[in-house]
Write a structure and sequence with these properties.
Blueprint (H helix, E strand, L loop, with lengths): L21 E6 L5 H14 L6 E5 L5 H10 L4 E6 L1 H11 L5 E6 L5 H6 L5 H10 L1 E10 L2 E3 L2 E5 H8 L2 H7 L3 H10 L5 E7 L2 E13 L3 E2 L3 E2 L11 E7 L11 H20 L8 E6 L1 E6 L4 E4 L2 E5 L2 E14 L8
Parallel strand pairs: 1-2, 1-3, 3-4, 4-17
Antiparallel strand pairs: 5-6, 5-17, 7-9, 7-15, 8-9, 8-14, 9-12, 10-11, 12-13, 14-17, 15-16
Helix pairs in contact: 1-5, 2-3, 6-8, 7-8
Length: about 325
Amino acid sequence: MHVWTVPVVPGGAPRPGPGVRTLLVVNVHARTGARRFLATREALARQGVDVDGAVALRTPSLLPETLREAMEAGAQRILVGGGDGTLSLAASVLAGTDTVLGVIPLGTGNDFARSLGLPLDVDGAARVVREGVVHAVDVGLANGRVFLNAASVGLSVAIARRLTPRLKRWAGGLAYAVAAAREALGFTPLTVRLSVDGERHTLDVLELVVGNGRFHGAGNVIAPAASLEDGRLHAYAILAHGAPREGAGGPAAALHSLAVLARVSPRLRRGTQQAHPDVLAFSGREMVVETDRPQRINVDGEMRGRTPVHLTVWPRAVRVLVRGDAPVLH
């Protein structure tokens, strides 16, 4: 597979610097992918961004191979269009290299773009490609695998299973909230053993989220102080005080879960959940999550293995384009 042979929309500006090569890769696996590919190319052209090649990727699992081949061919800047799962996979290849990542947010949540302070529209993202500056940001590691936003256990795993392409098309940006409400009706709390820099905690939770950046779940705030450059993980646990321990689909468990979520969810959008009695917050450089029985782990919206999970930070691992007027990342 040679990545430099796909024709592209001509840009209106000179190529960036001697020897700099720019590749555009767009995940077009979704039904609207072809249209988004064209829209991205046109937006880059309107902003005067010239690219040397463009790939419409119909098989997301081929992304790492595509990026490695591009880097071997001399790519110094790779623009990736897709959701957080696509960007997380791209970061796993680019981490620790000098190749620069340009983010074109085309997903449902776009939480990495939010944490970077990027515009969420294609034209705005293309403008950052043209005018932005290169900044090195942290990535998280979950059992050694790179992630950008968050790893979680509990309710978010059930939510991720319900976040089907059909629901995303129907509900758009509200898809996460719709899925959360539906899944809470049949969820049983988990007992989690959490170690934060060696300090141990045992918790009964509806949800435990460990984040690298500031956002997850289409705009939920992991912690107000979280940053992609602080070298730390931030976590919050939604506690399950008094929740029934049996009968996953029983009305008492469902009502309790819905009541807790109704109280906490608005605070997650504002980043004020730490003040709520049903929420505990943690911060550290290393966390270990264990459960009484293996639980699936939601990492950047994808299912990646089961507990136990060892989480750390790889500081300043990925070079990414950000707005020049926003030197402090969130």
